[in-house]
Backbone:
């Protein structure tokens, strides 16, 4: 245990040192939010998948593997579809925008098409949505740490995760995130593939034990309903068109061809690679739980266990000391990769699109802009940390944050690029209606016909947007 903690601590210190290095290199808010606009395809692609999947979806996937088996992998198949659709349909449109070299946020695109009022509303939606997503990542890291280290409560882990993630984000900005994402993601994938899976497979007794313990439906790809697939698709695919963390990476790319290549790379790493790794380890966690392997650390098979703790507790149980610390550090860094990106998306939108802070023009203005970026990031990071203390389910929190943004922003952004009759009035009202419908149905726990409230939010937003457009006389 001491060796694992030491490795973990060294890893965290190294991450902070990387953040400190880029803290000294960053000169402007442009460096901070879009990494100087000169990043290669592989760095962007791995950063995209690290941000999109990260530790949060990794923990969530483990939970799905624990409760439904291999079919949980379809969750990230929708990520592959979304990534490739965005590469073909969205990225070329973005690079056709005039003045793209000055863009740092998604709401600035809304301002170009619809005006300032719509951009401010888009900024509010983005800020709130990514603030919630940051909180979900903090709790994901906390569950990972508490499930791995004996006697470490979730609340204590939330504080640790929040301090590390927020501190690193304030220091390094997007440039640090992107370049460390590549290294962190390679370590995470290698750790799970070459350590987590074989050690867990051997510890539970191999495939014979899996077959004898879990329901055979867990070993198929059909242990889900069409409603599950529709709900995942309607929430995840559109986020590739409205996620500001993704737009920041489009702006950070060297050009259109590099950005498109990065999105194709990201899609393949999401599914099948990460999708099956996550659910297989979650499935192995279920087998280990049923075998009573977790009883010595307080999780008897007769007790109800949080499915999202299955994967980290499994790693804690089967990995030897030293290797567990390395895998845990890699998982923790994957969580940070998502948390810091989401936090920067939230702070960038608040600073630029809501508060209207404009940097640049002189060295003094650049310094003020960078300082303002860091102060806003710190403030929102503290809020995200407080929210995380009250969260329980990582995947639900992430999907709700996704849905909140998707239902408000998806139809207006698609309309901006693909419908000549799109109007600023229609975009403004569609954002409000879509977001409110999804939020109200979610809070009231209403799922008509078993379908996600986000679907109804998007439908209502579409009706409003099209109606205003048809009567648009411009």
Residues:
């Amino acid at each position: 245990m001491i060796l694992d903690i030491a490795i973990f601590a060294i890893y965290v210190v190294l991450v902070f040192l990387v953040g400190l290095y880029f803290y000294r290199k960053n000169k402007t808010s442009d460096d901070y939010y879009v990494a100087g606009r000169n990043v290669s395809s592989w760095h962007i692609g791995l950063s995209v998948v690290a941000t999109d999947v990260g530790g949060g979806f990794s923990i969530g996937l483990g939970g799905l593997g624990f409760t439904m088996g291999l079919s949980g992998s379809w969750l990230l198949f929708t990520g592959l579809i979304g990534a490739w659709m965005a590469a073909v349909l969205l990225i070329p449109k973005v690079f056709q925008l005039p003045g793209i070299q000055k863009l740092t946020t998604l709401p600035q695109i809304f301002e170009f098409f619809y005006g300032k009022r719509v951009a401010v509303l888009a900024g509010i939606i983005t800020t709130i949505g990514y603030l919630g997503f940051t909180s979900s990542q903090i709790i994901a890291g906390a569950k990972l740490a508490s499930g791995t280290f004996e006697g470490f409560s979730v609340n204590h882990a939330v504080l640790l995760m929040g301090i590390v993630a927020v501190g690193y984000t304030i220091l390094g900005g997007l440039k640090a995130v992107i370049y460390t994402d590549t290294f962190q993601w390679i370590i995470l994938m290698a750790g799970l593939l070459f350590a987590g899976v074989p050690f867990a497979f051997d510890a539970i007794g191999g495939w014979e034990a899996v077959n004898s313990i879990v329901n055979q439906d867990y070993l198929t790809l059909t242990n889900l309903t069409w409603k599950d697939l529709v709900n995942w698709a309607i929430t995840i695919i559109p986020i590739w068109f409205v996620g500001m963390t993704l737009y920041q990476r489009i702006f950070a790319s060297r050009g259109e061809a590099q950005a498109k290549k990065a999105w194709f790379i990201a899609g393949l790493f999401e599914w099948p690679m990460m999708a099956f790794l996550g659910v297989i380890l979650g499935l192995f966690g279920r087998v280990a739980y049923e075998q009573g392997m977790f009883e010595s650390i307080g999780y008897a098979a007769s007790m109800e266990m949080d499915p999202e703790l299955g994967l980290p507790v499994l790693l804690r149980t089967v990995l030897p000391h030293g290797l567990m610390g390395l895998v845990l550090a890699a998982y923790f860094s994957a969580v940070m990769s998502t948390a810091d990106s989401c936090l920067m998306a939230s702070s960038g939108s608040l600073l630029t699109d809501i508060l209207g802070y404009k940097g640049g023009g002189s060295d003094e203005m650049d310094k003020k802009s960078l300082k303002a970026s860091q102060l806003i990031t710190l403030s929102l990071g503290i809020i995200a940390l407080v929210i995380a203390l009250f969260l329980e389910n990582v995947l639900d929190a992430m999907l709700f944050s996704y849905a909140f943004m998707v239902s408000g922003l998806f139809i207006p952004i698609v309309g901006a690029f693909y419908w000549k009759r799109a109007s600023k009035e229609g975009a403004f009202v569609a954002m409000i209606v879509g977001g409110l419908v999804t939020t109200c149905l979610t809070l009231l726990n209403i799922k008509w016909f078993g379908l996600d409230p986000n679907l109804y939010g998007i439908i209502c937003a579409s009706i409003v947007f099209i109606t205003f457009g048809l009567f648009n006389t411009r």
About this structure: The chain has a mean pLDDT of 84.
